[in-house]
Amino acid sequence: HPDDPPIPSFEGVAQIIVDWHALQRVIDTVPSPCNGLGFCMGTIGTMAEVDVVEAIRHFGGQGEDLLCPLSQPAGTRAQVRRGLP
Length: 85
Fold this sequence. Notes:
Blueprint: E1 9-10, E2 13-14, H1 20-29, E3 37-38, H2 41-45, H3 52-60, E4 66-67, E5 74-76, E6 79-81
Parallel strand pairs: 3-4
Antiparallel strand pairs: 1-2, 5-6
């Protein structure tokens, strides 16, 4: 699961999975059929310059398992409120 919200630091704690490249690094670092992504569409949808549909095609097309929880974020990346669609 990517860091939520996807910003470099949250309440003084560094976060490392905050963008497309970090998600890809997770897959590339441990190439295994047992490695997959907690592909939170709400979090990924709030990442800067990331299209969720394109990301699903990219990461899903690599043969990795994607766990895809749904949420409907509201607000800015720094202050996200969650709700169900």
